[in-house]
Amino acid sequence: MKPAPDKISIDPAPCVINPQRSRIEPAIDSPALLIPLPGDLERMTRLFREAGSQCYKDHSLRVFHFKESKRNMALAGPAVGAPQAVMILEKLIALGAGQVILLGWIGGLQPYLSFGDLLLPDGAFSEEGTSAHYSKEKRPKPSANLFQELRKALQKGGVAFRQGPVWTTDAPYRETIDKVKTFQSQGLLGVDMETSAVFTVGAFRGIETAALLVVSDDLSRLKWRHGFREPQFKESRNKVIDFLFRFCLPSRTTGIPEDSI
Question: 116-138, pLDDT tens digit by residue?
Answer without folding.
Answer: 999 999 999 999 999 999 999 99
